[in-house]
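Re-run with default settings, no changes from the original entry. Doing this only to confirm the output is reproducible before filing.
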Amino acid sequence: MEKELRITKLETQRRNRDRISIYINDKFVLGVHRSIIYKFNIEEGNIVDRGYIEKVIGAQEQKRAKDYAVKLLSYRQRSQREIEDKMEQKGYDGNVINKTLKWLKEYGLINDEDFAKEFVISKSKNYGSKRIRMELSRKGVEEGIIDDILNREVDCEREYDIALECAKKKIKAYRGEKRDAVYRKLGSYLQRRGFSYDIICKVLREVMDF
């Protein structure tokens, strides 16, 4: 017959007043956030079983995962894939990750369309649509969302103006070099910035007239 499992002490942790140490049969078992105590109505004297303890552990792990995801988002907006990848690197279970992502979506904390829009607005000040598309794709944003945002936020005329401005700044670094070398280097620079072939050719014709 298994020994009775009784919660014998609940103790507020010194380093974190929001965490409570749970003792069962006078032995420390785990520490949980104060909200878990309320959620499971954990009190001294309660008799519990191993299934109950596993549920408490699972709830604490889920709470920890949510807190981690929110912390990531406090630094900057992120795509769903970025959050998922970070949580996998931290070693969270797939089921915990999926529940966390669902919770983030329900509360509007992650939205790939909003993320892509802000990303495009920010990056299009210095980069071409090809570079932006590649980076968004790497971040796991769906192609349909990328197409829609780029079509709405970036037009050829504006992209040309940005490429031209980038070229005018960069060409100063090649002062004194041969024309062919400048043409090649500047073209490669604009290509790395993600501007289209047509835009690069047009810009080079404009700035190489010196």
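The chain has ten helices and four strands. The longest helix spans residues 50-75.
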